[in-house]
Design a protein that fits this description.
The chain contains five helices and five strands, in the order ββββααβααα. With 171 residues, the chain is α+β, with helices and mostly antiparallel strands. The strands form two sheets. Strands 3-4-5 form a three-stranded mixed sheet. Strand 1 (4-5) and strand 2 (12-13) form a beta hairpin. The longest helix has 34 residues, at 122-155. It is globular.
């Protein structure tokens, strides 16, 4: 991707991922990932009334930031937004659905003849795929909480213990 600059901030516009094998609408696709919290001050008023509001608002922000820059380079753009509680944004759900459909078309059943997954339907593989992403998200949330707790503990004057943050097996 040729790096472009945001006209307002002057910052580089570089999406998080590029898939040359994706070819949505006959074009390669750039993705930008985000995790948003529905209880954040920015979203809480709107999010209290409708599910996925925080994710939808963040998707719109990502599209306004990257869609035009990607389009001028012949790329499609898809935001991939998750909410901290595990919900997938509307576009992220569509990306997963399309990815699973493409995987189902590309991989013949004979390839999995000796594996347990040969009996999976696309929808059950999709559920498994989304669960794995959600688990990774929750592991990241736990790590962020532990790091924040260690920082707060250190700020409270507990230097000797806070020099080594709490550890958890997140793998």
């Amino acid at each position: 991707i040729i790096q472009q600059r945001d006209p307002e901030s002057g910052k580089r516009l570089v999406p998080d991922a590029l898939s040359v094998a994706w070819s949505r609408d006959g074009r390669d696709c750039a993705f930008d990932l985000a995790v948003t919290h529905p209880c954040a001050r920015t979203y809480i008023q709107q999010a209290a009334g409708r599910a996925l509001t925080a994710a939808d608002l963040r998707e719109k922000k990502k599209c306004s930031k990257y869609a035009q820059a990607c389009s001028t380079q012949g790329l499609d753009f898809a935001p991939f937004v998750l909410e901290t509680y595990g919900a997938f944004g509307t576009e992220a759900q569509r990306v997963v659905k399309e990815a699973v459909a493409k995987i189902a078309l590309k991989l013949p059943d004979t390839r999995f003849s000796n594996l347990a997954i040969h009996t999976w339907t696309a929808s059950s593989f999709r559920a498994h795929f989304m669960q794995r992403i959600s688990i990774s998200l929750q592991r990241g949330n736990a790590k962020a909480i532990l790091l924040r707790a260690a920082r707060d503990f250190k700020l409270a004057g507990n230097e000797q213990i806070a020099s080594s943050p709490p550890r958890a097996n997140l793998d």
